[in-house]
């Protein structure tokens, strides 16, 4: 175990927190296997590994039961240890190879209704306090309109430069995960909000800085950070009386509302920048709930 953890730290460069989690999980694994009479990793069988996983899920006197996600994380550490032992000649086989981690329950994305989106966007500007306050209000409205109007991630939005937008044609070029760029359309409301920000607010914010290409600027004239954008969203949600609104809420709502409106799932996949349509299909589960609600309230024999 010490050799494996050293390999992860030096050759793989894992973060300190990740190493700490691996160390904790593997110590528990060693304790459990020692209690089963295993004194070397080559003695561990597939049944031993499965028993360890069952024990994680059920808990014991010293440990509470773990969720599927936490148990899966522990099993990842165990599987890595056994692969390493096989590669280093410390075991003749990989006892953990066929033991699969538990599948966490699928969590549906959090989406808010169209009425709630409109309340959030209306609250984005906030109270105006002088020229700087007006400028920040225009920026905040443009940011949230762009997030909902394009489905961009919050990191993609704050990463935009002014030259990445073509307001005449209604498109923006965003850099997604892994640096993969894509073109996303911008609706009329977002175009109008961004245009108002560029003309009336961005020059005011830029005075405090040295100038730069960033589209969204903070009060010091620098690029608005992801944390700064999150605070903008949080403040607007509080003013709108909305709870549990996260940086991804507008993106989830964008996708859900498109599908509710009849958009093809592969088109939504391209707009969101998902590498696989499987990732996008989780949103179709959200719209099924809408179908159930419409059926329950509309069909004469929907209720007993």
UniProtKB/TrEMBL annotation:
It comes from the Bacteria. Keywords: Cell cycle, Cell division, Chromosome partition, Cytoplasm, DNA integration, DNA recombination, DNA-binding. It holds the Pfam family Phage_int_SAM_1. Residues 1-86 form the Core-binding (CB) domain. InterPro entries: CB (IPR044068), DNA_brk_join_enz (IPR011010), Integrase-like_cat_sf (IPR013762), Integrase_catalytic (IPR002104), Integrase_recombinase_N (IPR010998), Integrase_SAM-like_N (IPR004107), Recomb_XerD (IPR011932), Tyrosine_recombinase_XerC/XerD (IPR023009). The keyword Aminoacyl-tRNA synthetase does not apply. SUPFAM superfamilies: DNA breaking-rejoining enzymes. Its main location: cytoplasm. It is found in: Cytoplasm. Residues 107-296 form the Tyr recombinase domain. The active site is at residues 153, 177, 248, 251, 274, 283. Belongs to the 'phage' integrase family. XerD subfamily. Forms a cyclic heterotetrameric complex composed of two molecules of XerC and two molecules of XerD. Site-specific tyrosine recombinase, which acts by catalyzing the cutting and rejoining of the recombining DNA molecules. The XerC-XerD complex is essential to convert dimers of the bacterial chromosome into monomers to permit their segregation at cell division. It also contributes to the segregational stability of plasmids. This is Tyrosine recombinase XerD. It comes from Actinomadura fibrosa.
């Amino acid at each position: 175990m010490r050799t494996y953890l050293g390999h992860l730290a030096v050759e793989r460069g894992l973060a300190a927190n990740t190493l700490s989690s691996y160390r904790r999980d593997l110590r528990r694994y060693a304790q459990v296997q020692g209690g089963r009479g295993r004194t070397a990793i080559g003695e561990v069988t597939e049944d031993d590994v499965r028993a360890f996983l069952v024990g994680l899920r059920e808990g014991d006197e010293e440990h509470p039961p773990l969720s599927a996600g936490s148990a899966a994380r522990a099993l990842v550490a165990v599987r890595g240890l056994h692969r390493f032992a096989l590669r280093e000649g410390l075991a003749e086989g990989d006892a953990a190879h066929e033991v699969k981690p538990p599948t966490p329950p699928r969590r549906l994305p959090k989406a808010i209704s169209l009425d709630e989106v409109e309340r959030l966007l209306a609250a984005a500007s906030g109270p105006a306090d002088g020229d700087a306050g007006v400028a920040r209000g225009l920026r905040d409205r443009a940011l949230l309109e762009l997030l909902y109007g394009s489905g961009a991630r919050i990191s993609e939005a704050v990463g935009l430069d002014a030259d990445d937008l073509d307001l005449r044609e209604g498109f923006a070029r965003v850099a997604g995960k892994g640096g993969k760029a894509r073109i996303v359309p911008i609706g009329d409301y977002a175009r109008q909000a961004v245009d108002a920000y560029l003309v009336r607010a961005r020059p005011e914010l830029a005075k405090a800085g040295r100038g730069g290409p960033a589209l969204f600027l903070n009060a010091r004239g620098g690029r608005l950070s992801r944390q700064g954008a999150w605070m903008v969203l949080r403040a607007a949600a509080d003013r709108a009386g909305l709870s549990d609104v996260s940086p991804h809420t507008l993106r989830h709502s964008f996708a859900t509302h498109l599908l509710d409106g009849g958009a093809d799932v592969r088109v939504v996949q391209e707009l969101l920048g998902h590498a696989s349509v499987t990732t996008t299909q989780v949103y179709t589960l959200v719209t099924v709930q809408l179908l159930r609600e419409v059926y329950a309230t509309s069909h004469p024999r929907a209720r007993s």
